[in-house]
Amino acid sequence: MYCLFFNQANGADTAQDNLKGWHFTSARKPCIYNRMQGSILIFDEDRARLNELADHLRRDKHEVTTTPRALDFFNALERVKYDVAYVGSGEYDALELLRQVKHHRPTAEVIIAASYPSVDGAVEAVREGAFHYVSSLTPPEKIAFIVQKALEKRLITIEVAELREILRSVRGPKIIGESPAMQELKKTITRVATMDGTVLVRGETGTGKELVSRAIHEMSHRADKKFLAVNCGALTSELLSNELFGHEKGAFTGAGAVKKGLFEAADGGTILLDEIGDTPPVMQRQLLRVLQEKTIMRVGGTEEIPVNVRVIGATNRSLLDDVESGIFREDLYYRLNIFILRIPPLRDRRDDIPLFCRHFLDKFNAQFGKSVERLSEKTMRMIMSYPFPGNVRELENVMERATALCDGPQILPRHLPTRMMASARGMMKEDEKMLTLAAMEQRYISRVLESVNGNKTEAARILGINRSSLWRKLKADKN
Fold it and tell me: What domain range is 243 assigned to?
């Protein structure tokens, strides 16, 4: 068992610098705590009190800068490096000085010393970000103790921020798929997540639009805030407005209390507007205002409420076609599509199907308490040949049913839905037709190209020929 204690170098500004001061000692020996040292900026127009506090802090080995005038304090905020600021009495409002400190150095901790302290003053100071609120008559030794606690808090804050950044950098989207199309999608998600603009996710039903949206949120700086989703097509305009913006007490019959909407609840985080193409026209206008003004108004309210939310829209339709037909607002469309992500359907990335099967088999084995080991080769061929109009969601349902029905070590064709077996029989009958060797070759080449989303270099590798040979064969087919 070990004990950890710390001694910070003067002016250390990052957790990496601060960690140089950590030392380990055996718990069998006395554990000595070295005082944490930092840079302190002091403002107080009472020079006697200012000098007394400065002398006391310097005896604790802190680097101290004193400013007896407010103008000097403002200048010091920009040029002096400090970990903790002490704001004493003066002609300027202490809360305004606190705001200036936080503006110039957000990680600095602030101690406010009031000549006439009050409960209301303490509440307001803490609300504005002060670490502590004391009387200006507080003894220097007590201020020194508070400074120590402020330095400890600042170190923890910096360490947590850096650890979050490290976790964010290695988190990556939890999305299954190694096909070229999915590799490119993952790269795009990683790039888009670091930015803060609105995103439009397009994909057929069942492709995983919400999963992609969650991955964007989890990799962004908003990851520690809420991710909330709402299906815009499942609610009327009135219900959707109430769900998104909330309502005031008495706004309508039954509104007995104030209710916050999803935009307020997700403040600082992300909202997914699923099936946004089905949003009623009235709501489209309201959403446009939210994106433009960054404010919302509750139903029945008169006060605009600022919100800081990243909006992701998801749709299985072509919104541009809807714009041209007048169904969807053009200005809202261009507000939404700052970044567009297109999720390929499962039929265009068949190489990923075995990965999904393995993932879902593990999931439903655990859920049903089973130990099904694999899919038979014939079963896998039938699944690979199926077009999956319902995409990944349909495959998940197929695997859930097959795992539940399976009573042996492997999933067999009889465990698959009848529609899948019928589809496989239809393809077998088609294959039984007498074809020339050249026609068989062209059919096989077409299937390989379809499986790699048209990537000719990858198709040539699978076929075992060079790219120029593939080009010749494709040209011959057209002739």
Answer: 180-344
